[in-house]
């Protein structure tokens, strides 16, 4: 029998922690709740499984520092970071720290569940992860050259005026390209666009397995 997926919930607000714990429990998740990053690190152990859901601002260290501590331990635990003010620069920083997603408050339960399930799917790899990567690459394939250049700036967390100056474009042109990129990528926020860009970058950096050459017919065996 497969055990229910596990969520490690970190939030110093008792009411939020309790409410999210009840919500996850009602949706079939097991929940371990912590009031601080220090408690979380002590409770996770060396090889934690499941998904981390952490508020960005915690009393002892922020969620990105918590992720850095986990990565230093060699843990690849997927994580969803919750914040009151998300944006492209923070999204870039969160993805670089190893977050699977960045979710801006206020959010509905379904949005958080989608993020957590997607993060858990990355740990399983296989068809779900491959399908998401293919979908991202297919959407980005529709981008024109100028849109790709603007996307590169967005993926670096650069604001539109800075992108415009770097590319020698009018600010209005950059804003128009950004709107077209988001429409073609079918995303509503820059955070989601940055997440998709990270997936595409990882896919293009991944080494392609080389096929082993077979011996020509009639060649002597080694």
UniProtKB/TrEMBL annotation:
GO MF: DNA binding
InterPro entries: CheY-like_superfamily (IPR011006), Sig_transdc_resp-reg_C-effctor (IPR016032), Sig_transdc_resp-reg_receiver (IPR001789), Tscrpt_reg_LuxR_C (IPR000792), WalR-like (IPR039420), WH-like_DNA-bd_sf (IPR036388)
Residue list for modification 4-aspartylphosphate: 55
Segment forming the signal sequence: none
Record PROSITE patterns: HTH_LUXR_2, RESPONSE_REGULATORY
GO biological process, one term: regulation of DNA-templated transcription
Domain Response regulatory: start-end pairs: 6-120
CDD domains reported in the protein's UniProt record: LuxR_C_like (cd06170)
HTH luxR-type domain: residues covered: 136-201
The UniProt record lists the keyword Phosphoprotein: yes
Region (Disordered): 202-222
Record's keyword terms, sorted: DNA-binding, Phosphoprotein
Highest taxon listed in the record's lineage: Bacteria
Database matches in SUPFAM superfamilies: C-terminal effector domain of the bipartite response regulators, CheY-like
Keyword Cell wall biogenesis/degradation (UniProt): no
PANTHER family registered for this protein in UniProt: TWO-COMPONENT RESPONSE REGULATOR (PTHR43214:SF44)
Descriptive protein name: DNA-binding response regulator
Organism: Methylosinus trichosporium (strain ATCC 35070 / NCIMB 11131 / UNIQEM 75 / OB3b)
């Amino acid at each position: 029998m497969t055990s229910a997926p596990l969520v490690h919930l970190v939030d110093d607000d008792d009411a939020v922690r309790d409410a999210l714990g009840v919500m996850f429990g009602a949706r079939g998740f097991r929940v371990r709740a912590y009031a601080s990053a220090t408690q979380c690190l002590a409770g996770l152990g060396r090889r934690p499984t499941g998904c981390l859901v952490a508020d960005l601002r915690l009393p002892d260290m922020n969620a990105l520092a918590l992720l850095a501590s986990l990565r230093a331990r060699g843990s690849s635990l997927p994580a969803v970071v919750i914040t009151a003010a998300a944006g492209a620069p923070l999204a870039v920083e969160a993805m670089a720290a190893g977050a699977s997603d960045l979710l801006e408050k206020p959010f509905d339960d379904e949005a958080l569940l989608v993020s957590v399930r997607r993060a858990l799917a990355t740990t399983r790899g296989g068809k779900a992860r491959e399908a998401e990567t293919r979908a991202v690459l297919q959407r980005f394939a529709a981008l024109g050259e100028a849109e790709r250049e603007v996307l590169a700036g967005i993926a670096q967390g650069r604001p539109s005026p800075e992108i415009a100056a770097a590319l020698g474009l009018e600010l209005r042109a950059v804003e128009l390209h950004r709107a077209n990129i988001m429409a073609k990528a079918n995303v509503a926020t820059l955070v989601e666009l940055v997440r998709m860009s990270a997936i595409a970058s990882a896919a293009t950096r991944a080494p392609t397995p080389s096929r082993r050459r077979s011996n020509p017919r009639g060649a002597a065996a080694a």
